[in-house]
Each structure stands twice: as structure tokens, then as C-alpha cells.
Amino acid sequence: MNTLTSEIEIIKSKTSKINEVDFENLSFGKTFSDHMLECHYKNGKWEAPKVVPYHPITLDPSAKIFHYGQSVFEGMKAYKDANDDIFLFRPLDNCKRLNISSKRLAIPELPESYFMEGLKALLKVDSDWIPKKDGSSLYIRPFVFASGNGFHASPADEYTFLIACAPSGSYFSGKVKVLIEEKYSRSANGGVGFAKAGGNYAGQFYPTQLAIEKGYQQVIWTDDNTHEYIEEAGAMNIFIRINDTLITGPTSDRILDGITRKSIIELAKAEGIPVEVRKITVHEVVAAAKNGSLKEMFGAGTAAVISPISGFGYHGEDFDLPELENTYASSLKKRITDIQTNKCDDPFGWRYKVE
Amino acid sequence: MNTLTSEIEIIKSKTSKINEVDFENLSFGKTFSDHMLECHYKNGKWEAPKVVPYHPITLDPSAKIFHYGQSVFEGMKAYKDANDDIFLFRPLDNCKRLNISSKRLAIPELPESYFMEGLKALLKVDSDWIPKKDGSSLYIRPFVFASGNGFHASPADEYTFLIACAPSGSYFSGKVKVLIEEKYSRSANGGVGFAKAGGNYAGQFYPTQLAIEKGYQQVIWTDDNTHEYIEEAGAMNIFIRINDTLITGPTSDRILDGITRKSIIELAKAEGIPVEVRKITVHEVVAAAKNGSLKEMFGAGTAAVISPISGFGYHGEDFDLPELENTYASSLKKRITDIQTNKCDDPFGWRYKVE
Ligand SMILES: Cc1ncc(COP(=O)(O)O)c(C=O)c1O
Ligand SMILES: Cc1ncc(COP(=O)(O)O)c(C=O)c1O
């Protein structure tokens, strides 16, 4: 494994776009900070990463990213506390997951130090871009794509790793109504569903559009064989509260091993909430909705944090969730964001100070 | 549906690279012709396509192609006969399939005339690039990708459609040894396997690399649920001859509806070969290999034309196919290439003269 032999090279942008940004009214992932991390794989190895001005990418029309979908990504957030200290949340897990995704897509794995040191160098250069407002953060997008050329359907010989940053507000506005999918699927057994591979997302857009036309915001994916088991949502793992028990499906080669998900499981256990990680059927959720034992459903993911679900559609029927006073969703969301933003202790050692 | 109101605009390249190309020793998809077709989707509509010099593409790092795999493509070939007339093979089927793929990936469909008239204009400008040598052709790559920006996991608002061309020799050299896959899968029920979507190919690279390390060249995909049914290969549909019957699986939402496949079915029927389009199990193929009734296996696709399979591996065992004198593979390959290259009658009306 290569390790960095020297400091990350930094080429600063001559101008800044920061004054054009309204930090009070941020949308999600639409404005980008002044710099990015850039790193190339050539001649069988990853070259040293550099912090460079955010700039357009130029590729040959035959670059394999355009043809064969060889790309993986991550999603992280940086937070700033009252003292202007910068924090990440479990960043090494994103780095490791990027490499798990890369391996499945036949993309060469990145040395961890390139990712971690590169990311820290970038955040220090663009630290003014990290919003301090509650609910806002600097969304961080590490990604790798095939930049080598050729029409032969085989892995590329060159790759590009970039980290770009977007100061962002919340991903969803308000509660989310979801559709439990009965026809389309997100992933196959033995496929790439567990990887954060670009192609997994494109395949969800059309079924999601159909759901949006019917008045839902998101699809809840089920297994491709029986459509009986609840899997996950577009960019969130799913939690279901029946009576006082919090249930989430096990991860598999079809489901992304979410960092928010596994943190929520630990946080809930620490708070004394009964947690079950087990397969959960649509049938069970519908039955619970009908008999009143279904108390909450929420999605969990870096972009959306914890996103409460207001109701779901299944088989032509709509089911509303109750409006509770004290929800697991709101207490767990407060716990996790307090840890992320350095507003409370971090008994788990998840917070990572950038220095 | 938009139709073209005027001639396709042509911007010619000032120089040509054609003298650098050794047309006697062409590899596959590595050298590109002087021009390409370029067409942009903006503000809710496809703009008129133009023939322009082959040139690099410049994109923002947040362009959705890098993140969410929104891309589809086609593969076609142009042939030149002794009179320098240019021919395509069933091109409208590629155009229609591109739109079928686009729809599933939430990419706006292209007006057919943009594709057809654009392609013809490009081929006329680059007609010197069409090889005449037997077994060579101009490989044509139409593709559409998300060029709109943003980190929100939703369809892009801008797309780019390009057609690039590569004078090419054969895709495989010699016979192919394949591995019947028992663990990994290419596609899900309700997924995007029937679409020529970029992500379908990236997902195949790693399992194919593992197969190559074991001494095979290609993977034969099986269904993701039981791994009992033969589906297709990386970029080819699969035909199996047991005794004198030619068998191929039915298409489905997991399998690409290959133009070569459907042409081979018709050609074989016309030649009096008994053809069965039905599900075929690995078990049946292994049993036929053991009792000597398995005569041939071959892949069929535009890039590889008809590619005979020399043997297959399954469950740790290797099975060789017999070396026959007169194979279906060779007679059908001659039939289809003679039609494609205007060396014989075309009773089916598949050949398409570019004029
Ligand atoms: C498909 C999918 N599931 C779940 C998640 C949640 O994962 P994490 O909590 O690590 O962000 C994401 C987003 O990252 C995702 O894309
Ligand atoms: C997955 C897959 N199957 C089959 C084929 C064969 O299709 P066609 O004969 O239309 O080229 C291709 C290549 O186009 C392919 O990519």
C-alpha cells in the first residue's frame, strides 16, 4: 500500500466564489467550494493527490466512464462548531467503503492515506465553506471514475479520484411519503447493490419518477425475487418501529452498509431501545399499520440524516403513520447530530477532528 | 416528436488522422475517426445534432454521469462493399433500443430522425474510415450521458448524445472458453438488464477478471436467484446446439434483446435448422456435454458477430466442446456477414444503404 511521502501539494484558486453564496438559504449539492482534491491512476499506480482549484474535467469521448459506468462514490459531511473547529463523522469508514465499492467495480483501490490526508488538506483550504447554521453542513463527495479510453468492454487503464464539496442545506424538506415497490428492483443477488456504484442510482430514477407522479417522494426497494422483504430507500437505509421495538433489515450484497444505519443501531441500543436487525416483510409492516402497532418509519443516511416517513403506499392502498409526540426519529436525530457537530460527548469515538 | 427541419450542420476537421492508421492491423475500438455527431439536451428539448471534429468533452466535476451512472449506449457497424457503397445492419432497431434503454434510465428519448439522419451525415463525412478488409468494419458507438450538474440523486436536466466511430478488427481472437457463473449476477428482475446501460457493464468486470484468472475469457451469466438458467454473456447472447436443435433463452427484463440474436433465429429457421427459444438450464447443458449431444455453443452480438465457444467451466469441472467440420456457427456467420457486407441477397430487408 502506497503511503504519502510528503505534504499534499496545494494549488490555490486566484479568486473565490464564496461571496456569491447565500449561506442562510442553501439548497442541496448545487454550489461548489473553491477547491477540490484531484488524484490520477496511471501506469498501474495512484499518483500523489493535489488540492487544486475547482475546475472542469476534460475527457476523450471514448473515456470508459461514458460507456461502461465504471464509477463509485461516497457521501460525507463536515461540520464546524462554535470554536471554528472542523469535524467529520467516521471518515475512515467512508474511505474503506469506497475501496469496497471500487473492488467490486474492478477499479483500483486507493491508498487510505491519499483519501484521509487529501480530504483534510482540502477541508483546511476550504474551511470558510463549512456552514455553521444548524441543519447545514459541507457535503463532501469523494468519487472515482474510469478516465481511460476505448470501446472494448473491459476495465479502464486510467482512473480519476476527486473530492468536491458543496455547502448544503437539508436533503428533504419535511416528512417523506414512500411507495413500497412491487415491480422494479434496485439490485440483484450477487450484483453490485452493496457498492456505492453510479449505476445503482441511475436504475432507480425511472421507478422513482413513476412513484413521484403518484404522489410519493421515495421508493422503498424490496428484494427482486419476491418483493416481500423491505430493503432500503434511494439513498437511505430504513428503520421501522413496531410498538417499542426498532427494526432494520440486515445488510447483504444487495444493500448498502450505511454508516448512519450502523450508528443509529448503536445509539438506540445505548439508549435502551430494543433493536432488532432482521428481515422484515412488507406483510408484517402492513399488518402492523392496520392493527396500530406501527409507530414510526424513518430513513437514515448521511445526506438526509434521519428522515421521518409520514406514510406509505402499497398495492394501491395508502397507510398513514401516527403523529407521535416523542419519536425515536427525533431523539436519535438529535443524538447523532449533537455528536457530529461537537455539541455533546462522543462515547463511541465517532467524531473526527480535522487538524 | 421533433423532426429535423433542415440539413445536418457539418463542421469539418482541419486535419485528418487517417494516415496514421494501419487498416491492415486494426484492434477493436482504439482508434477513432476524424468526426463525431454531437447533440445536446437542454431546457427540456434535444437541440439539432451536428457533425463536428472528434474532440474532448469538458464537464463540471458535479456532472451526473460521474456520480449516478446515467448513461446508455449502442453498438453498430458500417460496412463498405466493392463499389464503395456504405451499409448498416438494421440501424433503426439500434435507434429504438437506445430509446428503450434511455427510458428505463430516465434519460429523455431522442427523436429518431436525429439519430438516423445524424448517423448518415457522419458516415458520409467519415466514409474513408470504413475498412473494406474482410472481418473489419467501422464500429459505431452512439451514446447518451447525463451532462447536467448537481449532487442530488435525481435525473440530470441536461444530456449529451454523441456518435463516435472506430475502424475495428475482430473483438475476440480465436475461440472463447467461458465460465458459467454461480455466484455473481449481471441483473435483477425488475432491474435494468434489458437496457444497454453503462452500469450493467461495470458490474461484470470484476467477476470476469476472476474468470480470466482461472483461464476463461468470458462469463456466462445465470439468473440471480437460482443460477440455474443460462442467460447471456458480457456483450453477447448465447446459442446452444444440442443434437441438431439450436436453442437460445427468451429475452426478459434481465437480458438484452440482441439484434444479432433475433437475426440468427430468423436465419437459422430459414435454413431449416430446428430452433427453440426457451429457458435452458445449466443442468441440461452439462448433461448434454456428458452424453455427447452438446454439439456447439456460440455467442452472438454486433461486436463479436458469432463467436464459437470451445468449452465451458462449471462447478470446478471443465467441459470441452467437439471440433465439428460444418458448424451452425460458421454457416450462420457467413450468412449474416454476407448480408451485412452486400455479398448476397437480403430477403429480410435488413441491409440499409447509406445514401
Ligand atoms: C443506497 C444507499 N443506502 C443507504 C445510504 C446511507 O448510507 P450512509 O449512512 O453511509 O450515508 C446511502 C447513502 O449513502 C445510499 O446511497
Ligand atoms: C449484454 C449484451 N447482450 C447481447 C448483446 C448483443 O446485442 P446485439 O446483437 O444487438 O449487438 C450485447 C451487445 O450489443 C450486449 O451488450
UniProtKB/TrEMBL annotation, chains A, B:
It is an enzyme of class 2 (transferase). It catalyses: L-isoleucine + 2-oxoglutarate = (S)-3-methyl-2-oxopentanoate + L-glutamate; L-valine + 2-oxoglutarate = 3-methyl-2-oxobutanoate + L-glutamate; L-leucine + 2-oxoglutarate = 4-methyl-2-oxopentanoate + L-glutamate. One of its GO terms (molecular function) is branched-chain-amino-acid transaminase activity. Signal peptide: none annotated. Pathway: Amino-acid biosynthesis; L-leucine biosynthesis; L-leucine from 3-methyl-2-oxobutanoate: step 4/4; Amino-acid biosynthesis; L-isoleucine biosynthesis; L-isoleucine from 2-oxobutanoate: step 4/4; Amino-acid biosynthesis; L-valine biosynthesis; L-valine from pyruvate: step 4/4. Acts on leucine, isoleucine and valine. This is Branched-chain-amino-acid aminotransferase. It comes from Yeosuana aromativorans.
